[in-house]
């Protein structure tokens, strides 16, 4: 596995990234967020594989308190699009974002253009999946995330393995009342996230992450992770 994982701050190998992969390590190291999609349909078989992977995730007490809702209705998608546009407007005002010149090719400019396109397309993305969770007694909302976000991650990995791209969004926060009414979400359930999914316009690439000695520790918060000799 040497050269394939970002361990201890070592750079991830930039070797050619396959479009699809059955290798878990390749899938994890290249499952970056994808926000630009080709205008091509995604088959039910492919999405069902992702949903099946989501259902295999762990949950508190194996209660599986989740519901994954694929949004196909044009009226619901229109609501999502309006929410995405509203989210972009709020972000640009709050962070004082100004769009870069069209010829700008630095990483920040590319990211901003990708985000702008993602939120402009909004609910017109090829596939939308809403992840909902029913709170369990005695848990906080943060703790309850442990019974839904592993399913989200399984879905993302299954999507990447099949060559799909996907991104987590919080657009539902700008249209929650409408979504609840239109989708029929019970009052005692929470919306965790909304995923956009589709065939990427570009290719996949290795994720960029902080080195382990900045995010992992041994025994004490300030004692960075270090391997011990065998």
Q: What attributes characterize this protein structure?
A:
four-stranded antiparallel sheet; single chain; 230 residues; 36% helix; NADH Oxidase; globular; 4 strands; alpha+beta; 8 helices; disordered N terminus
Can you describe this structure?
The chain is of the alpha+beta class and 230 residues long. It has a domain at 35-73 and 124-215: NADH Oxidase (3-Layer(aba) Sandwich). Helix content is 36%, strand content 11%. It is built from 8 helices and 4 strands. It has helices at residues 24-29, 44-55, 74-94, 107-121, 141-144, 149-161, 176-183, 212-215; strands at 66-70, 127-133, 165-169, 190-198. A 4-stranded antiparallel β-sheet has the order 1-2-4-3, with helices on one face. Helix 2 (44-55) runs antiparallel to helix 6 (149-161) and helix 3 (74-94) packs antiparallel against helix 4. The protein starts with 23 loop residues before the first helix and ends in a 15-residue tail after the last helix. The model is unreliable at 1-14 (pLDDT under 50).
CA(first)-CA(last) distance: 18 Å
Strand-residue fraction?
5-15%
Radius of gyration: 19 Å
The appropriate CATH architecture of the domain at 35-73 and 124-215 is 3-Layer(aba) Sandwich
CATH superfamily grouping of the domain at 35-73 and 124-215: NADH Oxidase
Helix content: 25-40%
**What's the mean pLDDT score?**
92
As laid out across the biggest beta sheet, the strand order is 1-2-4-3
The SSE order reads HHEHHEHHEHEH
Largest sheet: 4 strands, antiparallel
Contiguous low-pLDDT stretches (5 residues minimum) are 1-14
What assembly state would you assign to the polypeptide chains in this entry?
single chain
Shape: globular
User: How many H/I helices?
Assistant: 8
């Amino acid at each position: 596995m040497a050269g394939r994982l970002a361990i201890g701050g070592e750079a991830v190998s930039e070797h050619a990234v396959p479009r699809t992969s059955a290798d878990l390590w390749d899938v994890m190291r290249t499952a970056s967020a994808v926000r630009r999609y080709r205008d091509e349909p995604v088959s039910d078989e492919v999405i069902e594989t992702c949903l099946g992977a989501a259902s295999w995730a762990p949950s508190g007490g194996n209660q599986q308190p989740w519901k994954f809702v694929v949004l196909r209705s044009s009226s619901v998608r229109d609501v999502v699009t309006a929410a995405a546009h509203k989210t972009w407007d709020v972000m640009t005002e709050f962070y004082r974002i100004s769009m870069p010149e069209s010829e700008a090719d630095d990483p920040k400019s590319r990211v901003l253009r990708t985000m702008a396109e993602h939120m402009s397309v909004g609910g017109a993305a090829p596939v939308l999946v809403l992840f909902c969770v029913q709170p369990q007694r005695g848990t906080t909302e943060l703790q309850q995330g442990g019974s839904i976000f592993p399913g989200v991650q399984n879905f993302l990995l299954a999507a990447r393995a099949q060559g799909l791209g996907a991104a987590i969004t919080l657009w539902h926060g700008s249209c929650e009342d409408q979504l609840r009414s239109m989708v029929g979400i019970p009052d005692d359930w929470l919306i965790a996230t909304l995923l956009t999914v589709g065939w990427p316009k570009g290719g996949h690439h290795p994720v960029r992450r902080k080195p382990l000695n900045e995010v992992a520790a041994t025994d004490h918060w300030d004692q960075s992770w270090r391997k011990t000799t065998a």
